[in-house]
Amino acid sequence: MITPERLRSISFWSHDIDQSDFERARQGITLHTYPKNTYICHRGDQLDSWTGVVSGLIKLGTTSISGKLVTMAGLRAGGWFGEGTVLKGEARMYDLIALRDTEIALMNRTTFLWLFENSVAFNRFLVRQLNERLGQFIALVEYDRMLDAPARLARNIAWLFNPVLYPEGGLSITISQEELGLLCGLSRQATNKSLQCLQDASLLSVEQGKLTALDLDRLKNYGE
DNA sequence: TCATTAAGCGTTG
DNA sequence: CAACGCTTAATGA
Hints:
Elements: H1 4-10, H2 19-27, E1 29-34, E2 38-41, E3 49-55, E4 57-63, E5 69-76, E6 80-81, H3 83-88, E7 95-98, E8 102-108, H4 109-118, H5 120-146, H6 149-160, E9 172-174, H7 177-184, H8 188-200, E10 204-207, E11 210-213, H9 216-221
Antiparallel strand pairs: 1-8, 2-7, 3-6, 3-8, 4-5, 4-7, 9-11, 10-11
Helix pairs in contact: 6-7, 6-8, 7-8
The chain binds a DNA duplex through helix 8.
């Protein structure tokens, strides 16, 4: 069982809902850990829980028919996802891979649906989040065919700093260049070069195992 | 041929 | 000890 403090610290949505709803949500959540480089679920699995990242880093992606791995988004601590799947009671549309040791929170479907039916604040959060995701997925259309390595990296980094999805995420994250590469489908070398490039353009600053965004707006639109 | 990558290894913080 | 830079051999456009 997750403690109230911990749940608050990793879920923006829990701040605005009633105390009794919060407690109900907390009761409906279980914690699970996954080691680095393991699948949390495969595309097609029936994982009917709403999922939050407590710690670690998750890649949300899919393997195309040609066998090519495609990343749709990276998810870091504080991110919640899978609401579409849970609402529709469908199978997962994407693979989930833990890029480092990761702890996730699973809210069971019954609890999620109860909040959906009963909490206005929760719904407000959901709409905002769904809308933001929609924007990301639309951006993916151009992403695949039009963008070079630095632009891909810039997009992915901007997504990791999305102020709606990570309202209290701050302007820097702890992430290695290797992990970034895995997220954007770039090699370590290409990631390194692209990071330099973005740093030279003063869009971000790079430190050992750490990354700080300097201009989120330009990162989001870089190279278009 | 030329560019890019994965893998290994030495260096660094 | 993990992240990074560099070298190298393999790969493929």
